[in-house]
Design brief:
Elements (H helix, E strand, L loop, with lengths): L4 E4 L15 H14 L3 E5 L5 H10 L8 E7 L11 H8 L4 E7 L2 H7 L4 H16 L4 E7 L1 H7 L1 H13 L4 E6 L6 H14 L6 E5 L6 H10 L4 E4 L13 H11 L7 H4 L2 H11 L17 E2 L2 H9 L17 E2 L7 H11 L10 H13 L8 H11 L8 E10 L7 E10 L2 E9 L2 H13 L10 E9 L10 E8 L4 E8 L2 H17 L6
Parallel strand pairs: 1-2, 1-8, 2-3, 3-4, 4-5, 5-6, 6-7, 7-8, 9-10
Antiparallel strand pairs: 11-12, 12-13, 14-15, 15-16
Length: 524
Amino acid sequence: MESVLLYDTTLRDGTQGESICFSAEDKMMIAKLLDDIGIHYVEGGWPGSNPKDMEFFNLAKKVKFKNAKLSAFGSTRRPGISPSEDPNISAIIESGTEVVTIFGKTWDLHITEVMNNTLSENLSMISESVMYLKKFNKEVIYDAEHFFDGYKENRDYAIETIKTAYKSGADFIVLCDTNGNTMPFEVESIILDVAASLDHKGKIGVHMHNDCGFGVANSIYGVRASAVMVQGTINGYGERCGNADLTSIIPVLALKMNKNCMSGTNLKKLKNLSWFIDETANMVPRNNRPFVGKSAFAHKGGIHVSAIMKIPRAYEHMEPELVGNIRRVLVSDMSGKSNIEYKAKELGVKISENGFDSKKIASEIKKLEQDGYQFDIADGSFKVFMEKFTDQFKPHFDLQSFRVTIEKDKDKPCSSHATIKISVDGMPEITAAEGQGPVSSLDNALRKALGKFYKNIDEMQLVDFKVRVIDGRDGTSSKVRVIIESRDRNKIWSTIGVSEDIIEASWQALADSFHYKLSGDLKI
């Protein structure tokens, strides 16, 4: 079985993506998880570019990684000075990593038109920088920036730059599609030419961007053409359209191409890793992300569900558990009996015992969806609905009343205050709380009241809140649909409410969210 090395640059190239920002402590947590899952190289940052990255490398000196080699990133020396005089290269050495990654120019356009440099001086910059770093017993990875664009415009010079790096002692030559401009069929033919030019002695890697949507495909074609290292980021974070997404590349290499890159045990951690990094970056996880997305193995059509209940591979390309994901069946007005039966079993709701068979439940769902409900995106509310419809619902609290007030001063933003009265097993509780809006204050008040009865209620968080006008023809009297997404340490769930009143719709979704959470919680 051929091996492929995984090189993660989430902590450096990934942070160049819009809205992506990690503290040094965030980066350390992520680095440890990347190490735990079996990533071979973790690029920690560019120590010469900002204090935060150097702070990370100082923290990393106290940590012993069990799988990953930590790499510091930087550029070749500046024109006209020696490597020993370049502060960027000094910072790389000071970082203390056993691996260093430096990039150099390949495309003559950049060298002569952007940098106002000469082609010969550029070759000297590459050679001298690599040789200088090797004197410090560093493993040197050379990233050939803009290699594919440079190759297509001046093949001979582009190849000369990587030959120079290789002859100077670089351990890996990484070919970068920095503009994301190369087609998959071009990648394969170009890399085969490069491999022949290096007499197959060089260890070739690929670093692909996703500007044309080919980041993953180009990485796979690179491996087909002899690349033994793949660089990318978790969740495809990166500048512009992002980098090649390792959450897709890794399963393809391991499961589709039978490459030795990650153990089966570690592969099962992939979905949780993807989710954790999204959460740390304060990004909403993309449901349709291949392999690890919430919808990657979700089925809605009744015919599909009927088939997967018999033979899952009829509508699934692999077992979702291999990457730590799960199969999901969605319920909507398109659902048949198979969807209802599968979903009831998944959520632990017994049907057909109280005269409520799957056909009756499906019929009721179609009516509710005509009124504006959408259960395929609200598993939490669907469980509560089925329990209520089949007389199995046991409320964890009962609402007596609530009042929400909003106050607006002339020169200040609105403030909100909620008072709520509930009962738990007949015991009344009245509390009040403030919030950054009516739903926030109501959430805080309910959480405060329930905290006196249930353990761990504070670990539950509201992470997303969406409002959608269902039909705007009635103006401000139109129905609205509110979707609330909540999470705790173990799971994420969604709930829904529909009403002409936005506060009422919000309350429905909020109450369902707490009922769903408390169904697995313990009372104090």
